[in-house]
TrEMBL record:
It comes from Thioalkalivibrio halophilus. Pfam families: Usp (PF00582). It comes from the Bacteria. Belongs to the universal stress protein A family. This is Universal stress protein UspA. CDD domains: USP-like. Coiled coil: none annotated.
Length: 163
């Protein structure tokens, strides 16, 4: 039986389904919800703050990153149950998911996928594809599919699926 499961969360309906399925199929496991922010997104937030007159010093950038991480962590906590851990990282999503899963001694990575077209994946890359090819842990990929009633009970707050 799996003991340590890391669930990659990007706050999409596919990641909500991945979380629900991991809760349903690995009920006794310790689960860590992980959100990885892109450095460009953190930088955009910092640039927006500078444009608003907040200044552009390195200290301000550090504050903006910390603020972005705190906001992401708070959002993860809304999705998490009391017995689930949360973590936030900044970097390349697939590389950070793989690295942090190994550091945490995870046994399985669970993640949702949006099922983009081959062209979209080729142009922008696919975190799912990278993880499947390179992660040292097994990866369970969950499409945004209809869930059974038993699995719907495990969706995070605010998510409802209809047949």
């Amino acid at each position: 039986m799996l003991q340590r499961v890391i669930v990659a969360i990007d706050f999409s309906s596919a990641s909500a389904a991945a979380l629900a399925i991991s809760r349903h199929h690995c009920p006794g496991a310790t689960r860590r919800l992980l959100h990885v922010m892109k450095p460009a997104d953190v930088a955009r937030g910092s640039a927006a703050g500078a444009m608003a007159g907040a200044g552009s010093s390195p200290l301000h950038s550090k504050d903006m990153r910390q603020s972005a991480e705190e906001q992401a962590y708070a959002r993860l906590k809304e999705w998490a149950r009391d017995d689930e851990e949360c973590a936030v990282a900044v970097g390349s999503a697939p590389e950070e998911i793989s690295r942090l899963a190994e550091e945490w001694d995870g046994e399985l990575i669970v993640m949702g996928t949006r099922g983009r077209s081959q062209l979209a994946s080729m142009l922008s890359g696919s975190a799912t594809e990278w993880l499947v090819r390179h992660a040292s842990l097994p990866v369970m990929v969950v499409h945004d599919v209809p869930l059974s009633d038993a699995m719907r009970e495990h969706l995070p707050p605010g998510f409802e699926q209809h047949d």
